[in-house]
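Would you mind writing out a protein's amino acid sequence and the numbers that encode its backbone to help me picture the idea?
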Amino acid sequence: MINGNTRTCGLIGNPVEHTMSPVIHNTLADMLSHNLVYVPFSVEEGGLKDAIKGAFALNLLGLNVTVPYKSKVIPFLSGIDDLAQKIGAVNTLVRNSEGFAGYNTDMPGLYRAMCSEGIEIQGQDVILLGAGGAARAVAFLCALKGANKVYLLNRSLEKAVVVAEEVNSKAGRECIYPMALAEYRQLPEKSFLAIQATSVGLYPDTDRAVIEDQDFYSRIHTGYDLIYKPADTKFMQLVKKQGGRAFHGLKMLLYQGVIAYELWNHVSVPEETALQVYEILKEKMGIRELL
């Protein structure tokens, strides 16, 4: 029950109307008996600084940050953790005495999701599709978690080169190799973990994949699509058609939220509890079974 002791957390971004984050956090608060409520806040362009200042003045416990503010929010924070600094993006704000400190739980969330599915990164040869903000963060994750080689494929080779050079420099090793998307046939004859980090295939544009050549998918033993709506993307379908395992991004959404919740409340969420929330998420999205 909401009362005078209820703490508030929320999500800032634009748009935020279709977010699933309230399901995660309000369910966790209910399961763990925390007096906390989580709500979305739509912040118009130009209002970000005031939103952060206002959230602190209103004694909000913490915030998640989504597009388009994951990088833009950094100047308004009291500090930022090392991973978020490397990636250059923040998605979780934790209240302290001076304001809000910034963290990135997206990449730890992806790593935890992949581990829960039995997907290894260390020592793997990886194909990473895309060179936008999400792909850039995934490239950092792969570099920091010991991937062997990461072939970063993007329509714009120039953008892929910029991301590869930055990640290699900050990670202290050469492991990200930029390629133009059209050159995918030049990939080494190996079996790959492939991570799909573009918006191609995102609802409602569900009938496309970045690459649709069957031969490409015959080299993928495991495909991970960051998209979770739809729950069976064209990329995933093509991976499975060639005999590979395929996963959508809903567990990444789950675990980035779980880690944020742990930061705000100084708790460790039991895995059993996290998986119960996952079942509720799937039900809300009409996903009847693990794919």
